[in-house]
Amino acid sequence: MGPDEDDNSWPPWLKPLLKEQFFVQCKLHADSHKSECNMYCLQCNNAPLCSVCLAHHRDHPVIQIRRSSYHDVIRVNEIQKYLDISSVQTYIINSAKVVFLNERPQPRPGKGVTNTCEVCERSLLDSFKFCSLGCKIVGTSSNFVKKKKKPKNSPEKKRLPAPVVAASESDDSYSSSSSSHGRRNKIQSFTPSTPPPTSAKYKTAKRRKGIPHRAPTGGLFIEY
């Protein structure tokens, strides 16, 4: 399937919708207090609309774009009428279920995360593949190459046994690396070290002084 066929697999309004900039002032109704552009006509497919613009699109399918943390979202009950949003993670915002229009940068997955977006690698619940509508378009295209993830139990190169601790060292443990769920853990050996050899100076016992004996004649003491 080529690029043209990829485009035909989506509604003609979807990609232009994802490229639009919402929540800006309408150029046609700048004097109105309802000039913020947060609507989009799926039939005309030309530009974001404000509330005043809706008068010219009464019989057209129009959806409303909302915002969460400076990112555009759309309610599930609105978009699912016109688009298959399966495998896209949904969120609850202001008591309504929504999906994000485009990906949101994330420096690194959270601790303990086991599933991420196939396109931008944002943290996801296990039952989803994409974090947004934009990522689903990219991730389901024919020329998309999924990033290879490192296996959880990837084998590592065999390490040589740790060297025997020298007698002069006081450290009686060593550390090695092992792979456990893709992480490197420090393993400590509790095997006692070889006791240090007795020093030469202690091998020959010092000669003790003999017990003094009184000479049989005279008052001198003789040491043996």
Strand portion: 15-25%
Mean pLDDT: 75
Got a strand count?
11
Radius of gyration: 39 Å
Biggest sheet, in brief? 4 strands, antiparallel
Principal-axis shape equals globular
**Ends apart, CA distance between termini:** 108 Å
Number of helices: 5
Structural class comes to alpha+beta
Low-confidence stretches: 162-195, 199-205
Biggest sheet strand order reads 4-5-7-6
Helix proportion: 10-25%
Helix/strand order, N-terminal first: HHEEEEEHEEHEEHEE
Please provide a written account of the structure.
It holds the Pfam family PLATZ. This is Zinc-binding protein. It comes from Solanum stoloniferum. Residues 146-218 are annotated as: Disordered. This protein has helices spanning 3-8, 14-19, 76-79, 133-139, 200-203, and strands spanning 39-41, 48-49, 62-64, 66-68, 71-75, 91-93, 96-100, 175-180, 183-188, 213-214, 221-222. With 224 residues, the protein is an alpha+beta fold. The protein has a domain at 70-144. Strands 4-5-7-6 form a 4-stranded antiparallel sheet. Strands 2-1-3 form a 3-stranded antiparallel sheet, with no helix packed on it. It has a two-stranded antiparallel sheet with strand order 8-9. A hairpin with a 2-residue loop joins strand 4 and strand 5. It is globular.
